[in-house]
Amino acid sequence: MIRRLYVWLLCICTSGIAAATPIADNGSAHLSLKTPGNSARQYAVTFRAAGNGKYISYADKQIPVEITRSVETSDEQTTRITIDIKAVEDVYFNYGEQVETGFDHRTSHFLLPGFWYHQNLRSPKEAPSFHTSDSWLVREDRLSTPLTAIFNAESGQSVSVIRLNPQGEDALTTHKEGEVILSGKSSVGYTGFLNVHGKAVLAYGYPYCEMPQSYIRKLTLAPAIEAFQKLERGESVRLVWEIKRTAARDFSQCVQRTWEYSFDTFRPQPVDTPYSTSYMKEVLSHFFEESYVATQPLHYYSGVELETATCATTGVAEVGFVGRTLLNAFNALEYGEAEGKVRLVADARSIFDSYLQNGFTEAGFFQAKKEYGHPAKEQVHSIRRQSEGAYAVLYYLDYEKRHGRKHPQWEERIRQLAERFLQLQHTDGSFPRKFRDDLSQVDESGGSTPSATLPLVMAYKYFKEKRYLAAAKRSIDYVEREIIAKADYFSSTLDANCEDKEAALAAATAGYYLALVSKGEERSHYAALTRKAAYFGLSWYYTWDVPFAPGQMLGDIGLHSRGWGNVSVENNHIDVFVFEFADVLQWLSTTCAEPRFQAFAEVISTSMRQLLPYEGHLCGIAKTGFYPEVVQHTTWDYGRNGKGYYNNIFAPGWTVASLWQLLTPGRAERFLTNKK
Hints:
By secondary structure, the chain is α+β, with helices and mostly antiparallel strands.
């Protein structure tokens, strides 16, 4: 069957929509009906005007459903389409529409928030991208907002379609490809874009389908799928979409206005979570206690490659990325001293002491990832891990200095590392993504450059060394020129090479740090860069709650997805990666007089508390405080379990660090502006 379904898409893309009778605003509609045990039949659907903005359907052949289409135009730019489908007899159906934009497809840029940016050309052919096809339909719960926007630079226009009533329920299927009948009611539809005679076309419908391929796990495309919803005789369903045309000077402004529109449309509210900040930290602190390892030359918190079923410690000690050992040690120290938890303090200090003695290479770089019990590997450094280690230690040194304690050996180590950063920096201001101890480069890509900006700004403030600030400014010049100006946020995460959320957050946070140490026009410039990058970061975060099917754990425990962020084009799961982004949003809200930023920061802060694991509420995790990581909210998995569950292996080291940073607002301002 799916061969026939794919042929239908190819026919649309080669023979054009003109074969179907046009409906409002240059479009067409079709209906697929399936009889169990038989291939579905497709019908072109046309509409006759019935007055008052209503249209009654008729098909090229008699069909056992009645379709009413209502069109409301609130202004010249916005059209709301309401579809009512009523069954005359029991049917299994899939309904879809396409709307022409008039844009040249080859030069258009596409936005499916949290999933697709431009043409996804940073992604390999094994992931959804133009490398594989220039026409894609995807299920709505892959997207942070159930929306597709197409931007045309020549006209300075974008056209979008958004689903207005997506919340509700989902249903399981017995198969993952081909024509599938839903086991119950689902509210999940689809959206996307098609190339029709070289013109870009918006496509949307219900229930979901994915074409020309679905995406089931990292770098694994699978055959297409088309779902059919049952309607019993006399039963009806209502579907609502809104099509909007918006002016935009470039893709960045398209992303900004699309996010503002998404926020204003869904108006996501804070999630009613009962956990106070103090309770969150008390529960999360169990991770510090139970993951601590002191049997190796490096003492660390075991937070990498753990099994969700046991949370047993492993031999992986990692400074940054998914381990975040040193940032966790600083958090444990600060919290332990404030709460009188002697063991937390002692463990944290032992971690810093062990890294001071055993945690550096001959060239002065962190031994950023040490895998005890495994054969030794070639030392390949990443600018991200090195930066995150320096960042954590500088916060530690500043904290200690404020309490009258000095660490000259640590200061010398960080000075030496900062000097290595200056040697690594390219003349264009960028930093190589990966390199060796002798500074030879393994990956010259500049996508991770903004991660280095933060410790350079901090080192300037701590050591009062202007060369570090100059290097930070050169790095942000590169970020502005090659990342922000080109709207090309990529390769910040280390386990993928694609468009990703972390790149946008890193760019926004880098601009924020430089703005905090600047004045006048320079400060305003950095604030503008921060804001521009922040919209891309925000575009990855869910403005709505995706539905789950009964039996899918995350739905059964009541998870609301709003406020959680998708990860990357390659990794389609949500997680709690936020760190200082909420601080950035709060600061931008005041600096730019934009209340949406503050409102959404509150959504993030409340929503990300939901899966806190404690006795009686472990949320599928073996131990208290080991916060989950790979939260699989759509039909994609990281290798195990699928929608509604976690992968069986996770890294709570970074999730605890991220949430702790979220729960400790104002750190950067205190460090960089000497606020108390």
